[in-house]
Amino acid sequence: MEKTDSRNIGQKSRFTRRNFLKFVGTVTGASAMVTSGTSLLIKDVFAGKKQFELEKPKFKITKLDTSAQEIYKCQKTLKRFNCKNMAFKKVSEEFGVSWLTPWFQNMKENIMKSQIGYGINVKSPSEARAHQAFAFGANTWNMLLAPYGEGHENMGLLSWNPLHVPPDLRGHPDSAPEPSDLTKKVKQMAMLYGADKVGVTRFNRKWIFEQTCRNMLDPNPPDTKQIVFKEIEQPTETDMELIIPERIKYAIVFVVVMPRPSTQLGPSSFQTHAAANLGYGRMGLTAIALAEAIRAMGYTALPCMNDTSLSVPLAIDAGLGQLGRLGHMITPWFGPHVRIAKVLTDMPLLPDSPIDFGVTEYCTTCGICARQCPSNAISLDADRAYEPPATTGPTGNPGALKWYINGKRCLRWWIESGAACSKCIDVCPYTSVTLGDHYGKDKRPEKFWELDVAHFGHRKVIY
Ligand code: SF4
Ligand code: SF4
User: Does the chain have fewer CB atoms within 10 Å around its N or its C terminus?
Assistant: First the structure.
């Protein structure tokens, strides 16, 4: 047995199709982790199936008086992210067709081969089809709302104006609002609409996108629109700009937990696709409902899914977690097994403090996500950097001290595997120690239909 330390990071054997097939054969449908006592036993399938022991992450939460910009030592050169550089757009441009086209084609081929993802066999095409049907059904709310939100600012149910609050009930908020009382109320509403944990921040405009991109899945040149702040009464959209009133200064940020049983059937499967879809749908419903409630209290509210701003730094500023090596925010309650949404508002609120519970230090020596990522999209470097690797291209936004993710490699792997990957989220020790294992020793995909699941698949709901 070998203790992992920072010298192990970076010693991963090169990913090849051959050793990936070995990987699939070894841990299909399984987490490569066994928890015992205070340590985790990791099978490092990429390093000759060596096992090593890693101490379980600890959860002493410290409140900080610094912001995400300070925590990640952001340089002055850090620019607001431009949505035309999202991996979805860049890969569609690269393929000359929406990335969804080859992805759906490969999904269909998986079904015909009786597989629910890359190399994950089930008994028949119809069994494979049932898993895919679950994923498509799980995407329904998301598609009805505004698919994933990317490029959908102020569109459909993500409208920046009230949806159904009667005109007489709009505007005229309390003349002497009490921020702590309003904060308590909107957090409670968010939880009952579908959030699993809620935080508030007086948001940093650095995290608001510089431009939206309206044709995110289109291979043609980007169709962009500036996102700006102006002294204006109502949120407004023109041919050139999306204008947010200057007085909108707060973000209510929340996470929703994805169903854990689905991410355990990976590395890349129809089930992990279902997990993401359920997360997106529920986060969208929650954001839209919360925005409408805030409008009914007389304030302005902009519901946002993946649109309008980066979600991770807003969520860090709102005290919901820390940035992990895998590029997602890790929460102390549900690990990185969450999706994040937000509502921007002029309602005066009481901000939460960012937190530290040891994620950066743990990630420095862990590196399991990087070792098990099938596409080598996650950095294996021991240390964080200010610059993404050259291969990341414009999808990486230089200027923050972090482990950069190669979003294009990740997405190309989704296309190639004909399914959605969440391996990094599945194997993260913060996931296993918070959300556990739903399968035990029997990892067959068919077992999914027999699991005793609660609503949303992650916990027993207590009302
Ligand atoms: S980074 Fe992408 S390809 Fe790599 S494990 Fe995570 S989801 Fe899979
Ligand atoms: S994000 Fe990666 S490196 Fe950090 S704890 Fe999770 S698996 Fe380990």
Answer: C
Mean pLDDT in residue range 371-385: 95
**Nearest one of 85, 11, 31 to 260, comparing CA atoms:** 31
Task: Read off the tokens for 340.
Answer: 């994040």
| Summary mean pLDDT of the chain | 90
Residues 6+ apart with CB under 8 A from 76: none
For the chain, give percent helix, strand, coil, nearest 5: 35, 20, 45
Dihedral in degrees, nearest 10, Cα atoms 391, 17, 124, 273: -20
Q: To test ligand 2's pocket by mutation, which of 5, 53, 54, 326 has the most ligand atoms within 8 angstroms of CB?
A: 326
Out of 328, 422, 431, give the residue to mutate to test ligand 1, the one with the largest number of ligand atoms within 8 Å of its CB. 422
For the chain, the domains span 2-457
Give the separation between CA 202 and CA 342, rounded to whole angstroms: 12
Write down the pTM of the prediction: 0.91
Angle, vertex CA 406, rays to CA 273 and CA 335, nearest 5: 55
List, chain by chain if needed, residues with CB within 6 Å of any ligand 2 atom. Answer: 324-326, 362-363, 366-369, 427-430
Tell me the pLDDT tens digit for each residue of 306-315: 999 999 999 9
Q: How far is ligand 2, taken at its centre, from the CA of residue 351, in Å?
A: 28
65-102: string of b/e by CB count within 10 Å (b at 16+)?
A: eebbbebbebeeebeebbbbbbbbbbbbbebeebbeeb
Ligand 2 test: best mutation among 366, 381, 435, most atoms within 8 Å of CB? 366
Q: How many CA atoms lie within 13 A of 343 on its CB side?
A: 34
Residue the block writes with tokens 């099978």? 43
Q: What angle do CA 287, 405, 286 make, to 5 degrees?
A: 10
Q: Tell me how far the alpha carbon of residue 173 is from its chain's centroid.
A: 34
Dihedral angle sign, alpha carbons of residues 263, 428, 281, 374: negative
| Structure-token match 């329904």, residue found | 140
State the Cα–Cα distance between residues 356 and 153, nearest whole angstrom: 32
Q: Which two tokens stand for residue 113?
A: 């081969």
